[in-house]
Write a structure and sequence with these properties.
Structural class of chain B: mainly alpha
Oligomer: heterodimer
Largest sheet of chain B: 2 strands, antiparallel
Number of strands of chain B: 2
Structural class of chain A: mainly alpha
Number of helices of chain A: 3
Order of helices and strands of chain A: HHH
Strand order of the largest sheet of chain B: 1-2
Number of strands of chain A: 0
Distance between the termini of chain A: 55 Å
Shape of chain B: globular
Amino acid sequence: MPTLANYLLLSAILFAIGTVGVFVRRNLITILLSIEIMLNAVNLTFVAFGRALGSADGQIIVFFVMAVAAAEAAVGLAIIIALFRHKESLNPDSFTVLKW
Amino acid sequence: MLLLIPLLPFVGFLVNASFGRRLSKAAAGAVACAAMIGSFLVSVAAVWRLAALAPEVRTIVQRVFTWISSGDFSVAFTLRLDPLSAVMILVVTGIGSLIHLYSTAYMHEESDSEFARYFSYLNLFAAFMLVLVLGSNFLVMFVGWEGVGLCSYLLIGFWYQKKSASDAGKKAFIVNRIGDFGFVLGVLLAFVRFGTVDFQEIARATAALAPETTFGTLSLITLLLFVGAIGKSAQIPLFVWLPDAMEGPTPVSALIHAATMVTAGVYMIGRNAALFSHTPLTLTVVAVIGTATALMAGTIGLVQNDIKRVLAYSTVSQLGYMFLAMGVGAYASGIFHLYTHAFFKALLFLGSGAVIHALAGEQDLRRMGGLKDTLPVTYWTFLIGALAIAGVPGLSGFFSKDEILFHAFASGHTILWIVGLLTSLLTAIYMFRLVFLAFYGQRAANAPHGTAATGTNALGTHAPSTVAAGTVAPLGHHHLHDAPPAMAWPLIVLAIGSVVAGYVGLPHVLGGSDWFARFLEPSFSGAVHEASEAAQLEGTLMIVSTVVAVSGIGIAMYFFLKHREAADGLAARFAGLYRLLEHKYYVDEIYDATIVQPIRIVSQEGLWKIVDVRVIDGTVNLVGRVVQGSSQELRRPQTGSVRAYAASLLLGVVLVLGYYLWR
C-alpha cells in the first residue's frame, strides 16, 4: 500500500519532468504536452492529499483543473496551428518578434 | 432712477454690438444718440431732484445689488448722486450727446458695420464713465475706471489696420496699467486702513483724524491713488500716451481724451477731497506735478505741427491746471475748470475735426491756412473756443482758470502761481498760433509732409521754396465744405456753452455768488478748508491774468499772422531749444532707452534665451532624456522569446518558494 509520501514523490518527479520538458524541448506541441504533465502532477497531489485527509475537496479541485486543462489545450493548439500557418515552424525560438 | 443713467448707453452698446452689422448707419446712429440723449434727460431730471434737496442731505443713493459679501466685508453696487457727481454726469451725458450727434456725420464714410462698431464703443464708454462718476465706493468706481480705459484703447485703435493707431492704443493701455497698479494698491491700502471702500465712510473716518504732517499711511494711500490719477489724466511722468491717442477718430479725442475720461483722475481726487486734504505732503506733490505738467505740455504745444497734437498737449496742460487746483486745496475750482474745459476743449477738438473732415484727413497745420472764409461756422466756433481757453475775460475759461490761479496765490504757492501764469501765456500763444495758421493766411498746398523739413520750416510757417515744385498738390482741387448740420449744431451749442458755462461760478468780486462752488460744497465737506475770500486780491489777479492772456494772443498775432519770418528766425536762433520742444523733450526717447529697451533686452537675452530656453526648456528636455535613457536599458530584458519569459517566471517561483521555505 503506497503512502502519501510515495504519491507526493511521484507527483514531484512528474512536475520536474514537465518543467524540464517545457524548457528543453523545441517543439511547441511537446511543450504543450509537458505543461499537461505538470498539470496532472498537481492533480495527483490534490487527490493524494484528499484521500489522506479523507476530504472530497481535492477531487473537486481536480475537476476544475481538468476543465481548465481542456480549455487550455484547445486554445493552445489553436494558437499553435495559427503560428504554424504563419511561419511553417513549430520552434518557439522563431517567434521572437513581440519585442519593443 | 440713477441706474437708468449708465444703463441706457449700455443698452445702446448691446444693441449696436449685437445687431449693428445688420443696422443701417441711420439706425445705428439713432440708437446710440437716443441712448445718450435719454441718459442726458434722466441725468437732468435726477440733478433737478437733487437740487431740490436741502444742502446738508443733498445725495440720492440707489443700491443696485450686493456685489461682494464675504464674512463681515460687504460691498454693494451702489450709485450715489451728490453735487460733484451731478456735475460730472451732466458733463458726460451732455457733451457726450453732442459728440455722438457730431460723430454721425464725422464717421459717415465708414462702412455700416464699422459705423455700428464705433457707436457701440462710444456708448460703452459713456456707460462706464457714468459708472465711474456715480459709483459710491472705490470698487464700483474701479469698474468704470478700467472700463473707460478699455474703451479708450478700443477707440484709439479704432482704425486698427493702421499700425500707428494700434500701437497708440496699446501704448495708452499699457501706460494706464502702470497708473492703475498704483490705484489698486491705494484702494487696498485704504481698505486695510479703514476697513471699508465706501467714499463717504472713508471721508467720515478721516474727518476724525488730524492732518498727517509727516509721511504716513494716509500719505501713502493718497500718493498711490494719485499714481492712478497720473496715469488716467496724463500727468508727468505718464502723459506720453495722450498725444499718441490722437490716432483715434477726432470725436473720440474730444469725448474721451479731452472732456471726460482724462478728467477722471481729477474727479477721483475731488471725490476723496477729505482724504487728500489730510495729507499736505501729497497735496504738495499733486500741485507741483500738475504745475510742471501744465508748463511742460504748454511749451511742447507751442511747436507741434499736427493740429490734434497741439490740442492734446493743451489738454495735458489744462489737466495740469486742474491738479494744481486740487493740490492747493481748491477742489471746487478744479472741478469748475474741469467743467468749463469740457466745453471749450470738446469744441476745439470737434472744430479741428471739422477742419480735418473738410480737408479730407489733413492734420498738418503747415498745409492749412486761409480756411476762415471757406469754413465760417468752424472758424467762428473755433475762435470762441480758443478765446475761452486762452482766458479772455467774459468767457468760461477765464473764470475757471482765474479761480485756480487765485487760489494758488492766496494759499501762498507763489511760485506755482507764477508758473501757472506763464502757462496761461503759453496757452494763449499756442492756441492762437493754431487759429492763425489754420484759418488765416494762404493755403500752402504743397507744403512738406510731417516733420521732414524741420530746420527750414520752423514753427510751422509757410513752405520754403526749396521744396521741389513738382510734388503733387494732394489737396489742390478737393472741394472744401463747411461742417454739415450734424457737425455744425454741436459746434454751435458747445460754443455757446464755452461762453456762458463760466457764469455759474461767477466770483464775488465780479458781483457773482460763486454759486458753483457753493453747490459743490457738500461734496467737499470733509475737506480741510482754508479759504480766504480776499476780493481785492482776486480782482488784482484777474487783471494780471487778463493782461497775460491778451499779450499771449498779441504775441501769437505778431509771430504767426503778421511776421511769420520772425517766428522762423526765432526758431533758427534757438535751434537747440526748438528741437528739444519739437521732440517733446525727448521723453518718449528717454522712456524707450531707460525702460522699454532694458526690458526688451532683459526679456530677449535673459528671460528668453536663458530662463526660457535653458532653464524651462532644459528641465523639460532633461526629464525626457532621462526617461529615454533608462528605457533604452530597460528594453533589453524584453527579448520576445517566450521561453526566456517562462524561465524568469520559474526563477521567480523558485525564489519566492525558497524564501518561504528557508527563512
